[in-house]
Recover the amino acids of this structure.
């Protein structure tokens, strides 16, 4: 990345963080203001995605699926209504928070000229990394006792039995490209989304050259953002 690209990157990262801070959905006590998630993501997308037709298609896709209401998991982080969109936004936040220092450090390594990462790349990768979870969970009920000892029907999330999924990262890549076809040429983002789960979502053959993906700074940035969102903020 040259000096102009770095300057633009830093400026756009700052603007995206400014938009996030206007909504400030993550409260000091760790709770998420779900009502702030959709307008925050929408404003960010409309600001940073240069192809406005693809920005519109991306937002339409999220409206047409259960992205805004689905959980991020059935048992672990953000396993509540709206958890997927909340988790995605906190991953965006973490990606933006680390991005400038991360890329500044990357400019010191010998591969610095091989990768040009934009603020749009950071945002899109973080937003779309878990698209595979849209229309993935259903609500079922089990019998359980309440505090008074009475039996009640307790709802819980469970993976749908008829799911067809190409794998956590790769399914998300497919759904990203369906909404934003130009990204089929953006290998940096495709690698980041495909490999954001690290070794836990790869076949044995894919693991042979895994270290090569780690040369892509966006792969590591997204992995770090995803892990910190889940482990530090339980989101």
């Amino acid at each position: 990345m040259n000096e102009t690209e770095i300057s633009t990157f830093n400026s756009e990262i700052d603007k995206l963080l400014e938009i996030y801070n206007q909504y400030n959905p993550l409260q000091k006590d760790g709770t998420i203001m779900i009502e702030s998630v959709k307008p925050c993501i929408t404003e960010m997308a409309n600001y940073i995605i240069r192809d406005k037709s693809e920005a519109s298609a991306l937002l339409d896709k999220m409206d047409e699926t259960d992205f805004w209401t689905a959980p991020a998991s059935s048992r672990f982080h953000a396993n509540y209504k709206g958890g997927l969109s909340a988790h995605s936004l906190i991953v965006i936040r973490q990606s933006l928070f680390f991005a400038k220092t991360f890329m500044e450090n990357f400019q010191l390594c010998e591969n610095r000229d091989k990768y040009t990462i934009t603020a749009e790349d950071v945002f899109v990768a973080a937003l779309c990394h878990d698209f595979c979870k849209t229309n993935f969970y259903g609500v079922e009920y089990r019998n359980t006792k309440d505090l008074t000892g009475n039996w009640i029907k307790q709802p819980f999330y469970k993976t749908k039995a008829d799911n067809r999924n190409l794998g956590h990262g790769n399914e998300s890549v497919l759904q990203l490209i369906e909404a934003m076809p130009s990204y089929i040429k953006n290998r940096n983002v495709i690698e980041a989304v495909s490999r954001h789960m690290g070794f836990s979502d790869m076949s044995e053959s894919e693991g042979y050259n895994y270290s090569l993906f780690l040369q892509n700074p966006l792969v590591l940035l997204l992995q770090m953002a995803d892990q910190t969102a889940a482990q530090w903020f339980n989101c």
Observations:
- Residues 83-106 form the longest helix (24 residues).
- The mean pLDDT is 87.
- Residues 37 and 86 are 6 Å apart (CA to CA).
